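Before any further analysis, we paired sequence with structure tokens, yielding the entry below:
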Amino acid sequence: MRKAIKIVLWFLLVIVVAAGAFAAWLIYPGSPQSGSSLKYEGFIPLPKGKTLTVLDYLTVSGDNLFVTDESAGNVYKVHLREGALPGAADVSTFALEPATHGVIIDPSSRLAYVSRSEANTVDIFDPGTMRLVKRIPVADDADGIFYDPFEKIVYVANGDAKVATLIDPATQASIGTIPLGGKPEFAVIDPRTKLLYQNLEDVNTLAAVDVAKKVVVGRWPLERCEGPSGMAIDPADRRIFSVCSGNATLVVFDLDAHRVITSLPIGGGPDSVAYDSELRRIYGTGRSGVLSVIQQDTADSYHALDSIHLHFGAHTLAVDPATHRVYVGYASLVVPARLAVFSVNR
């Protein structure tokens, strides 16, 4: 009997120790290693949010980086420094309510627009003062948000509603919706055709949207892609890069042939992808916390450069086109959230 009790106690002790080690791993992310293509520079600390903080979109605009804290509902503006890492004093906050997602800057007014999926609004705020200007009601589950420079329209991807809401920045009001036929995730603009290309996550499809006519003008299956989420575009070679959360894959789509031409394995649960057109590099990351670096050799040829381990939940990133720095947002438990910063090894 005593032997059985000892075995049970040892078993419970092992479980407690393992749970403690796992919690410590979740709470205290270690510094990532540099790779052959990227050098780790350090972390940018963000203000303390919720007990569990999940960051969503990262957006570089000039010398500012906007970061959305989906859990607390905050938008952080990080002033980017030339040659030095930003500190706590370089971060300011626009706070309202949870479920913030994308941020865009209207180039005319220089006001910022942020989507909120629980409130079903797009909030306009002044990046100079970080204060609310106006709330605009939109369709259910406002998530991705994009600016169409040709129509001068703000395009909002509404996931549950499976539509896009259009907002006119001149009047700061909604001017209609576009039925998409699937749950929208990320979108990009093709400067040649002026069409907006939208990933539809639940039907594994790429849709071409004519924003001016408020209609979908084409749909193509994303073969070898389960759950397309993040997307980036190479406008010169007319290639779209989609990361697929369901099968940890990056697919390359030819905009002229309207088909997937190749695919590559990347880190698990990919959610975000960015393209550096000067270096011809593709960066992707996801829930598993692996930063994948892919080199574009030609329009149709690609190879993996790096697979850098970050931290579980580091699923969102952005590239600064001026400095080529890569910023990756970390999820956090208990401790404040942070951004990992990488510079390029040429």
About this structure: The chain has two domains: 1-30, 31-344.
